[in-house]
Design a protein that fits this description.
The complex is a heterodimer of chains A (about 350) and B (about 325).
Chain A lengths: L1 H14 L5 H10 L6 E7 L4 H14 L3 E6 L3 H9 L5 E4 L5 H11 L4 E16 L5 E4 L1 H9 L8 H6 L11 E5 L4 H13 L18 E3 L1 H11 L3 E6 L7 E7 L2 E3 L3 H10 L26 E9 L1 E2 L2 H15 L1 H11 L6 H12 L2 E2 L1
Parallel strand pairs in A: 1-2, 1-3, 5-9, 6-7, 6-8, 12-13
Antiparallel strand pairs in A: 3-11, 4-8, 4-9, 4-11, 9-10
Helix pairs in contact in A: 1-2, 1-13, 2-11, 3-12, 4-5, 11-13
Chain B lengths: L1 H4 L2 H16 L2 H37 L2 H7 L9 H37 L2 H15 L3 H26 L17 H25 L3 H9 L4 H30 L2 H6 L19 H8 L6 H35 L3
Classes of the chains: A alpha/beta (about 350), B mainly alpha (about 325).
Chain lengths: ~350, ~325
């Protein structure tokens, strides 16, 4: 049954880009009836532009549906989801054990559905006269951002960049001043790829005081652009003309791209010991050819809803946004990395099984 | 004063009653109630804000420092709420004071030029332009600060840092991105310039003509006339104008949020980044991702800002009231 629905969805996507798979997904269950009603969710602001694109696509296919996504932040999204005020939520981190217990209590018999619906590469970007690209190992990146490496012509940087003309200028680190999922995911990368050089526990607030900072992605990018010798981290689609770092993975250096970022998620194993509907990944930061600095943002939904209309809406919306079409729409709008077919196949059965009850 | 108090008691009971009987009907009565209602409404709003702040801040005020450190992202361990708010209060006051110090002399200059030096037509145009400045939204000032003023001011800040670095305010190192309190202070100064100018101009224009002409008749130059007649008359007006400006500078959020690279120190270094932060910008920065006790803590800092603003305004009133009798306004 689930396989049949999947085939239907994909077939619908392939045939007509203007009418995404969502409608036919709703239809496959209800025998041709269209969806209607209002669907409310909220959470991570990193997903905002992707959610906008999904919403536009889904509402075009289902004119009677209104989807709301409130970008209140990951914490607010998780709280709203576990107390039932959001039918679905976005979060830059997977639910921890306590939150999962609360969410399961809220969702009831169907359990919780959780999957990495939005994956976006984080670029390490810098502003240095005459240098467009640098090769940096994880330890060196961690050293720069923790303030251990203070000048651009430091031996640790020069060793991997024999051709670059590195000036004897101080490095100015610019980080996010607000609480952000980008910061949390970037720190998670540093913490896992260079545990000796970065011993701070990853969280949304930058742990080091006394460094330059700015609000939001556009803030750090414009701060980096306005100062010479700056380095920052930001969503890769937003870095405009800043130079970028090719990140050391094993023995090679990989520049960022949506494909390489999608690949690291595809190559990472699924976390074990979770419920059927929960697909959280344990990122492997050292797979050759992949770009390991990524923001992985999860989508949360319930397996059962009290109301049939709500269940159909969530099912339709979720299957649209994991569909090839939906992922491409997000990639176009937000520069995200589309989900691999394997993850889609693993996630779709539990989405298709969303029911009322 | 005393002579005017004694006669009314005889008339006082009769006069209001007669007025009420003859005129306080229909539209008059309606208008009176509208006016009273408006007056009461403003008090009610103020009280409602105060109650809201107290109510929402209460959990943070009563929580222990361990509890706060666990649930508020930027809360350092083993600090009381006061120690935590302290640097924010310091940053807020420093930014506002610097802005005021920059804006007040310029505003007085503009106001004097408009009221006493400029030809009438030019004065009118200038007056409009200054009022127009007040209508620019603060987010525009923020963008202007980031993209225009910041890069333009950087050489100035570097010069100040290298030549006047011995002075605590200009101690280095100078930030290469210009996202520092000095830039914020200049932007705030520009923002509060119109309101100070507008009030000061009105006050200077009200200088009695006789005073001015007397000064000129005694052989004073134009500058001496301004110094002896106009400035003493306008002093209390200028002070209350400055306090109005200070009120805006204290609460300004967007421009500070966009420009400043914040820090939480008691630091006078206005050319270095990550030194100070203002309360309003701090709340705007952290509120979007805050939940639970963190929200209460942010509102508690808002309560502190509310109290500071009230205190500043009351202080200004006290100064104005004390100086009133010397100003010649009565």
């Amino acid at each position: 049954m689930a396989v049949g629905a999947l085939a239907l969805t994909l077939a619908a996507c392939g045939s007509d880009p203007a009418a995404p798979g969502a409608e036919s997904t709703g239809g496959s269950q209800e025998g041709g009836s269209t969806l209607s009603g209002e669907l409310s969710g909220g959470g991570a602001s990193s997903q905002e532009s992707a959610q906008e694109a999904w919403r536009a696509g889904f509402q075009t296919a289902n004119p009677d549906v209104t989807v709301n996504y409130d970008p209140v932040g990951s914490g607010g999204g998780r709280t709203g989801f576990t107390d039932g005020s959001y039918a679905f939520a976005g979060s830059d981190a997977a639910l921890d054990e306590d939150e999962m217990t609360a969410a399961e209590a809220q969702c009831g018999t169907g359990g919780v559905i959780e999957f990495p619906g939005y994956v976006s590469p984080i670029a390490v970007a810098f502003n240095l006269e005459g240098v467009d690209a640098l090769n940096l190992k994880p330890e060196v990146i961690a050293g720069i951002f923790s303030g251990e490496i203070t000048t651009w012509n430091d031996d640790a940087i020069a060793a991997d960049n024999p051709d670059a003309e590195l000036p004897d200028a101080p490095i100015t680190v610019v980080h996010r001043s607000d609480d952000s999922g980008t910061t949390e995911n970037f720190q998670a990368y540093l913490h896992e790829a260079a545990p000796d050089a970065w011993d701070h526990e990853p969280e949304g607030v930058w742990p080091i005081e006394g460094q330059e900072s700015a609000q939001g992605t556009s803030g750090v990018v414009s701060a980096a652009q306005s100062g010479e010798g700056t380095i920052t981290y930001a969503d890769a689609s937003q870095i405009s003309d800043l130079g970028t770092v090719a990140v050391g993975v094993g023995d090679e250096f990989v520049p960022f791209s949506a494909e390489a970022a999608a690949e690291v998620v595809a190559q990472s194993p699924r976390a074990e010991g979770t419920a059927d509907g929960v697909y959280s990944i344990e990122l492997k930061r050292d797979v050759a050819g992949t770009y390991p600095v990524v923001l992985v943002s999860y989508l949360l939904a319930c397996g059962t809803y009290a109301d049939q209309a709500q269940a159909d809406l969530v099912k339709g919306y979720m299957s649209y946004l994991v569909s090839e079409d939906g992922q491409q729409v997000a990639a176009d709008a937000a520069g995200s990395a589309p989900l691999s077919a394997d993850i889609r196949d693993a996630v779709l059965p539990s989405i298709e099984a969303i029911t009322a009850g | 004063m005393t002579t005017t108090v004694s006669p009314p008691p005889e008339r006082a009971p009769g006069r209001p009653r007669r007025r009420r009987r003859t005129t306080d009907r229909g539209l008059n009565r309606a208008f009176r109630w509208v006016a009273v209602g408006a007056g009461v409404l403003i008090l009610a709003v103020l009280a409602a804000v105060a109650v809201f702040l107290l109510q929402q801040a209460w959990p943070a005020l009563t929580a222990g420092s361990d509890e706060l450190a666990a649930s508020v992202p930027r809360y350092p361990d083993d600090t009381s709420l006061l120690e935590y708010v302290g640097p924010l209060v310091f940053g807020t006051l420093l930014a506002a004071a610097l802005a005021l110090a920059l804006a007040t002399p310029v505003a007085m200059g503009i106001a004097l030029f408009i009221s006493h030096y400029a030809p009438r037509r030019l004065a009118q145009v200038l007056g409009y332009l200054v009022d127009l400045l007040a209508a620019v939204p603060s987010v525009i000032y923020g963008l202007w600060g980031i993209f225009v003023l910041g890069p333009a001011a950087l050489p100035v800040w570097e010069w100040l840092g290298s030549w006047l670095g011995w002075f605590p305010l200009f101690a280095g190192p100078v930030s290469p991105t210009s996202r520092v309190l000095a830039t914020v202070a200049v932007v705030l100064a520009v923002m509060i310039l119109p309101i100070i100018t507008a009030v000061a101009r009105e006050v200077f224009l009200q200088t009695p003509k006789l005073h001015e002409e007397a000064a000129l008749a005694l052989g004073a130059t134009r500058w001496e006339m301004v110094r002896t007649a106009v400035l003493p008359f306008g002093r209390s007006g200028v002070i209350s104008a400055a306090m109005l400006g200070l009120g805006r500078a204290l609460g300004e959020t967007m421009a500070v949020l966009m420009i400043l690279s914040p820090g939480f120190l008691y630091s006078f270094k206005i050319l270095d980044s990550a030194q100070q932060q203002t309360i309003a910008a701090y709340i705007a920065l952290d509120f979007p991702e805050a939940s639970g006790l963190a929200v209460n803590t942010l509102i508690a800092t808002g309560l502190v800002l509310f109290v500071i603003t009230l205190a500043v305004n009351m202080g200004a009133r006290a100064i104005v009231a004390r100086r009133k009798e010397f100003s010649g306004a009565n």
